[in-house]
Amino acid sequence: MKANIVTLPGDGISPEVVAEAVRVLQKVAQVYGHIVEFDEALVGGAAIDATGEPLPAETLALCQKSDGVLLGAVGDPKYDDPQSSVRPEQGLLALRKGLGVFANLRPVKLYRELLHASTIKPEVIENVDLLVVRELTGGIYFGPRQEATADEAVAYDTMIYTAAEVHRIARVAFRLARQRRGKVTSVDKANVLAVSRLWRQAVTRVSEEYSDVTLEHMLVDAAAMHLLRRPSDFDVILTANMFGDILTDEASMLAGSMGMLPSASLGEGRNGLYEPIHGSAPDIVGQGIANPIAAILSAAMLLRHSLELDEEARAVEGAVQAVLEEGYRTQDIYEENSTLVGTREMGSLIVGRIEK
Length: 356
Prior knowledge:
By secondary structure, the protein is an alpha/beta fold.
């Protein structure tokens, strides 16, 4: 198999963790006899610094022609002013639109070795293995809006979904549930919002195509509560853009650190955008202490979803499991009696355990 991967190191610690994910993909190619070529491009604050634009046209063109895109994170404190006309986050939104990705997958799986890294009781989270499927290109983030006037009298953002948009994302969730435990929890606010009532009707209609998958509907406030009370009951959580944004950050805390959790953003074709869910963490840049596991597991998702190399993806995930079982930890998941390692060493340990 021959593949072209575009890497977008981005800002902050992202170049450090993406470098380790690339080393992992290179080792996979070596072990399994694949040819993987890499192109690196600019996005986010780094792109603004170099070109004045958060997503240069040449970056998007490279990504569109690739077999998969591996992104770090975007964000730089010098562009933090939300009133700025150019911000790093604009590059990410434009990239998602340019690639046509609409389904954001965020798996949350607990490693038994890290049960005590979470602030939640081990007996509550020990069997957590859930997947959030978040609609990525619609909803309140993309509906009509009104910025505040000079006297700040009024501003609004509008949540809009069409039935077709809901059908599209729902089918992704149901297909994935078939590969897991066969349950979809659709999260909305149908007791208040008209758009959520449309969402619920549309999801119910799609569920009729998947008689082997159980569907339950849940209000978003109840879902937020149950993610902490009984998280192991969830299999696939399907939800709209803003709700998914909030719930996935909450769910990440079940694992004890955002440094453990990958994500994939998929469209109609095989090309996808893969990134750790953590941010650019400018406070620890250059210290060599960032956890690369989320970026490495994002690379595993790239292998699985874009390159259709499930065995290779499982080899990467198994290598991560092995290193954690041996007691190696980066600073964010460190605990007494474990062995503290840095970004590069953690990457080397995982690379060393990838085998057929």
